[in-house]
Amino acid sequence: MSLRAARAARGWSQADAAGELAALGRATGTPVAAAASLKTLLSRWENGHALPEPHYRTLLAELYDRTPDDLGIAVAPAADATTTASDRLRSAIAAAAAVDHTGLELWWEQLAIAGRLDDELGAAGAGELVRALVEQLEETLIHTLTPDRRAQVAAVLAGAATLAGAQELDRARPDEAWRRYHRARTAAREAGVPEADAVAGQAAVLVDVGEPATAVELLDLAGPATCDPAQVRLDAARAVASAAAGDAPAAHEAITAAARRLQHTRVDIVALPGGPVLELADLHRWHGRALVALGDAEAVGPLERALASTPRSARHRAAVHADLALALAAHRPHDAAEHARRARELALRIGSEQVGARLAALRTRS
Questions:
Q1: 67, 71, 287, 364: which is deepest, by most CB within 10 A?
Q2: HTH cro/C1-type domain: from which residue to which, for each copy (predicted)?
Q3: Residue environment code for 32-47, b if the CB has 16+ CB neighbours within 10 A, otherwise e
Q4: Cβ(144)–Cβ(150) under 8 Å?
Q5: pLDDT tens, 26-75?
Q6: Is 151 contained in some domain?
Q7: Pairing outcome for strands 277-279 and 269-271
Q8: pTM higher than 0.85 for the full model?
């Protein structure tokens, strides 16, 4: 009995089967893709374009109460290694060729879901989902032949890899974050979408490892962006990097340029093509971060305005609380301690070691 026949015997559509498989994954504690992505995977498995991974083979066997052999998804011993490798390559190329407009839309939907989950739970809740999505997109892009389709897949990959970079930075893995952002940049170039988020991410990595001057150099080499939202992101990254390098005039000039450009858009939220959204309130967060790096007491104002706007991302809220703890430590220690407590709570929730590292400066001062 084939996978398709087993599903038909239950009277399920592919969407029904995807939902049942997702529920079984949750019940057994087995990590699976979102239901929308599972529907695409089921189609590929049923059409023979790909063989399910081992954990999916186990789940499918349990779902349909059949053995993998019964369902035609058992791994047969290969005659020799060359044949196996050839079969794998042919299967991967066929699977990539089978990706259509619907499949791309589902990937965009999965990226949006991953982004919302990351906003709430960070790497702790969305890390595995983002990692799996990046790997799937990488595999598809490697085996996609036509330039137009490659560009479409690369656009989703640019956004997913950028999100993965932010999560790796949360985990205090700057080397892995750098690689993710680098992949996001190359994917963005192939897709023809702005790479500003990924460039800014790499600049943040360099600042994080104590190389702010190199971060400024990186931003210089990146050159101007092709659209206002992307340029705002680069200006803000330059402000933070310049401040960390001790260049106050350059930091103030960059944040002023970002504010002017962002005000010019006259919208509350700007979507960066191929990446996450840019909130106007982010400007206060970047401004405050730069002033904290400069040791400027005026940092409290923009940081409090950022917090009052309730940033959608728990990562951003944790960062603002941490920066406020640093900015208030000298003159309002009680308030600083409260912000530090909130920052640590959020950091624990999203799995961020980076926030804890920033707050370590408070213990050094005391």
A1: 287
A2: 2-71
A3: bbbbbbbbbbbbbbbe
A4: yes
A5: 888 777 777 677 888 888 888 887 788 888 888 899 999 888 888 888 87
A6: no
A7: antiparallel
A8: no
